[in-house]
Sequence to fold (362 residues):
Amino acid sequence: MYVAVKGGERAIDNAHAWLAEERRGDTSVNELSVAQIREQLALAVNRVMAEGSLYDPDLAALAIKQARGDLIEAIFLIRAYRTTLPRFCGSNPIQTEGMKCDRRVSATFKDAPGGQVLGPTFDYTHRLLDFKLAADGEVAEAPIGNTTEGPTPHIMSFLDREELIQSEPIGEETPADLTRTPLELPASRALRLQSLTRADEGFILGMAYSTQRGYARNHAFVAELRIGAVVVEMNIPELGFSIEIGEITVTECETVNQFTGSKTEPPQFTRGYGLVFGMTERKAISMALVDRALRWKELGEDDLGAPAQDEEFVLYHSDNIQATGFLEHIKLPHYVDFQSELELIRKLRREAQTNIAQEAAQ
Fold:
């Protein structure tokens, strides 16, 4: 039972004022601007956009500033703001084969058609603190021409030609929008992917790691990981054709997994898939691993009882806003509830002491 407690408005107002003061910090230090957060904390901005389900770097940066760097609080702010926005129409599915890739690597094919682009990555850096950054040192300029130009074919398409990988049926109906309708189980793969792309990165990373340690028998290779800009198009009924309304940066990952076949399917590879706003490759890879683990039933595989195979467990516990709300509500006033628990314990203790005394008297 939840009991509403009234009063304490002055204390709450003071808490808000104190929060604002703490957020600003030492006033002798220059205030951090939204533009600085957007440009220099881009990976944090990308996570807030992805898990907040709203692609707007400026708003994500503002939310990070308001939340004092607490990304889950920033995601909460973005989701709340998103609900106030009018919905005019839906865009067309993005075509990632037309991506202008800043980064495109494959762990399965050394000579990937279209070439490999390492891009801006921590993969090859030494994990040593760079004290030049503390001294505001100059930044080395990247060479020109690293981004791929023109269509970049998916590596999976070459396995497709030899029928070595399970074909993916193209859905004829527009899938339900998870941001507008509650999640229901069992969920379609489209809904599962929506849930995973806005799920907490740490939770999905943990689930993905569990599959690599044997909890789901899910040994995967990264067939392709690509990061870059894709065009967003929208149909205009009055014009009779689509127009470009902008570009967004996304991270896409396709994993390839072994599949021994079934009564109706020959031995072949299967896929795991991840697609996330911004440069968010750890999340995209994790998403692909968990997506593949959740496909065990449709592929006719055994249920090993692994956490990553449990659709209800994964999808109902991966949303950090729902988890935060339920967890943090226990710090709010529960005076009446606790008093009833306190009286119960006192009563049980009195009864126990009475029973002990009676047994001793006998």
Observations:
- The first helix runs from residue 9 to 24.
- Strands lie at 100-105, 220-236, 241-259, 268-277.
- DSSP finds twelve helices and four strands in the chain.
- The chain has a mean pLDDT of 87.
